[in-house]
């Protein structure tokens, strides 16, 4: 029994790291410019298909594709900002609604495009370096892909933290604090916003790449992860990286334990219960600044 | 150095400037005075590129119209805005260093730091503090310091004395005189008529968006009409 609980705790935490990283990308963009990216799940989905396609074409392992996919997603994020978001932000009225519909429309478009390009069936990578391998940790057996994914997500968080300490990170923070005042000191906020989208998308790309080593890929795979990401961001506090990490781990843990205590199909009940509880008692989230 | 010809601007739906002509020569301190709502702040915002305008605005021969605000700042035109607009949750040091962010290729990027600390020693004592924890006067010093970090050739100050203890107002105005001594041209908007005219070479009097008088600061200070226009008596 204890082994079973321990197993659930560890695998829940590992999954939680993925949730946390997906949420970090969402939180970064939201914190920077108050735009909720409703296409975030589809960005995750796209990065998974990118791994699948590159793996199929080049026979290169997903782990080696990590920097490539991150770079592609960075470019994609910048493009989404320049082509869609910047225009949506420049409208004269109803800016909030326009932002929502633009990213929502992008989500539907991307899902349709993936369906068209890759078909609707579930696919997975079964011949990766880590596929079907496990590692024993005392009484707990852990699938190697999940362990690797958890480690990479932690490294990505360390990277985000390091970035926030750089001069660019300070400029990002300044833009988040007062987007008009940065122009007074010669900072091009459009460039900062574009970079923010690039980093947000690259972050989700890292999560997607690691996820693709053990999770099924389909055009709608992003939906579930997006919902969890919104909950994670709200739970951790909008714009807080540390909050996203803590909330992601908490959600992974609660989900895994709920599946054990009730039954796997009800695994999300616990997560939403915790969410409602935190929302009622502490509306700004665990680490919220607002 | 700076030339405005026939500049009109609307701010929040109101005509705030109507056919304004202003010229500032290199090395001068020029004051813009006038009652509340005369268009003083709009004038500075217009130069900084924050307000859509008609007319011509040139800085050292280059047109500023239709330039993005950050481009204007990079040309050497720094605005210390009303309300200061610091980055409240960043440290004093971060606020200052960010002033040099856009000059990444300048080998002496952080050179102006010494000047800022010399002008405002209080800032040096509070480097690690968040900007929001400073007093009003210290925040104004930081805002001016941040602007100096951009190495401006024209420094524009919008109501630097607003919400500040009288003792610190003197310090800040003394600093403005020092800054001018370093060859930086200053355009200052101020409610406090006497103080502003005391440090200025020339002055413009604005009334409901028009220049109603301009000339040497001493002459403007002595003019009875100005006192009436400005003080409303």
Question: What this model shows, in words?
Answer:
The complex is a heterodimer of chains A (290) and B (233). Chain A is mainly α and 290 residues long. Chain A has a single domain, classed as Orthogonal Bundle (ABC transporter involved in vitamin B12 uptake, BtuC). Chain A has helices at 2-33, 40-58, 62-89, 95-118, 144-165, 167-177, 181-184, 189-211, 221-236, 241-261, 267-281; strands spanning 134-137, 140-143. The longest helix of chain A has 32 residues, at 2-33. The relative contact order of chain A is 0.21. The model of chain A has no long low-confidence stretch (mean pLDDT 93). Chain B has 233 residues and is α/β, with parallel strands linked by helices. Chain B contains 10 helices and 10 strands. In chain B, strand 4 and strand 5 (62-63) form a beta hairpin. Chain A binds chain B through residues 167, 170-171, 173-174, 177-178, 180-189, 289, and chain B through 48-50, 68-70, 73-74, 78-79, 81, 85-90, 94, 97-99, 101-103, 146-147, 149-150.
Short characterization:
Chain A has about 290 residues and is mostly helical.
Task: Name some characteristics of this structure.
heterodimer; A: 290 residues; mainly alpha; ABC transporter involved in vitamin B12 uptake, BtuC; two-stranded antiparallel sheet; B: 233 residues; alpha/beta; globular
Total count of strands of chain B: 10
What Rg of chain A do the Cα atoms give?
Answer: 19 Å
Query: Shape of chain A from CA axes?
Result: globular
Alpha-beta classification of chain A: mainly alpha
The number of helical elements of chain A comes to 11
Helices and strands of chain B, in order, run as EEEHEEHEHHHHEHEHEEHH
The largest pleated sheet of chain B is described as: 6 strands, mixed
As an assembly, this protein is heterodimer
GO biological process, one term (chain A): amino acid transport
Protein name (chain A): Branched-chain amino acid ABC transporter permease
Family (chain A): Belongs to the binding-protein-dependent transport system permease family. LivHM subfamily.
Membrane topology (chain A): Multi-pass membrane protein
């Amino acid at each position: 029994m204890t082994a079973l609980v321990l197993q659930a705790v560890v695998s829940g935490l590992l999954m939680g790291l993925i949730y946390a990283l997906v949420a970090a990308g969402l939180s970064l963009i939201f914190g920077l410019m108050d735009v909720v990216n409703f296409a975030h799940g589809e960005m995750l989905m796209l990065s998974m298909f990118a791994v699948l396609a590159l793996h199929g074409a080049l026979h290169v392992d997903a782990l080696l594709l990590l920097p490539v996919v991150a770079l592609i997603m960075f470019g994609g994020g910048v493009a989404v900002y320049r082509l869609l978001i910047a225009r949506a932000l420049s409208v004269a009225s109803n800016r909030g609604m326009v932002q929502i519909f633009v990213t929502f429309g992008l989500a539907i478009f991307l899902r349709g495009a993936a369906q068209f390009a890759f078909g609707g069936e579930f696919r997975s990578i079964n011949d990766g370096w880590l596929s079907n391998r496990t590692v024993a940790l005392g009484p707990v057996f852990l699938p190697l892909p999940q362990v690797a994914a958890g480690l990479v997500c932690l490294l990505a968080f360390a990277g985000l933290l390091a970035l926030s300490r750089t001069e660019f990170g300070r400029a990002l923070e300044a833009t988040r604090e007062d987007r008009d005042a940065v122009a007074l000191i010669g900072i091009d906020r459009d460039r900062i916003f574009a970079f923010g989208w690039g980093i947000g998308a690259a972050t989700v790309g890292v999560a997607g790449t690691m996820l693709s080593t053990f999770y099924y890929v389909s055009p709608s795979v992003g939906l579930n992860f997006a919902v969890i990401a919104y909950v994670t961001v709200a739970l951790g506090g909008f714009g807080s990286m540390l909050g996203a990490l803590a909330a992601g781990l908490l959600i992974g843990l609660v989900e895994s334990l709920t599946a054990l205590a009730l039954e796997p199909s009800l695994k999300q009940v616990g997560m939403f219960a915790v969410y409602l509880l935190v929302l009622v008692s502490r509306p700004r989230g665990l680490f919220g600044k607002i | 150095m700076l030339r405005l010809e026939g500049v009109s601007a609307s701010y929040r739906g109101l005509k705030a400037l109507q056919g304004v002509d202003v010229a500032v020569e290199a090395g001068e301190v020029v004051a813009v005075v006038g009652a509340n709502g005369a268009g003083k702040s709009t004038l500075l915002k217009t130069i900084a590129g924050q307000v859509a305008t008609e007319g011509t605005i040139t800085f050292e021969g280059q047109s500023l119209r239709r330039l993005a605000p950050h481009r204007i700042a990079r040309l050497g035109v720094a605005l210390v805005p009303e309300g200061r607009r610091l980055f409240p949750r960043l440290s004093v040091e971060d606020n200052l260093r960010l002033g040099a962010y856009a000059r990444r290729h300048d080998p002496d990027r952080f050179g102006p730091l010494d000047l800022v600390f010399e002008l405002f020693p209080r800032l040096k004592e509070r480097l690690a503090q968040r900007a929001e924890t400073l007093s009003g006067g210290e925040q104004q010093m930081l805002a001016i310091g941040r602007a100096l970090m951009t190495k401006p050739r024209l420094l524009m100050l919008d109501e630097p004395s607003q919400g500040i203890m009288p003792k610190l107002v003197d310090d800040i105005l003394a600093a403005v005189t020092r800054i001018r001594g370093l060859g930086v041209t200053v355009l200052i908007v101020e409610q406090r008529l006497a103080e502003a005219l005391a440090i200025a070479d020339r002055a413009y009097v604005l009334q409901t968006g028009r220049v109603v008088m301009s000339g040497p600061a001493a002459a403007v200070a002595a003019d009875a009409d100005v006192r009436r226009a400005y003080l409303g008596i």
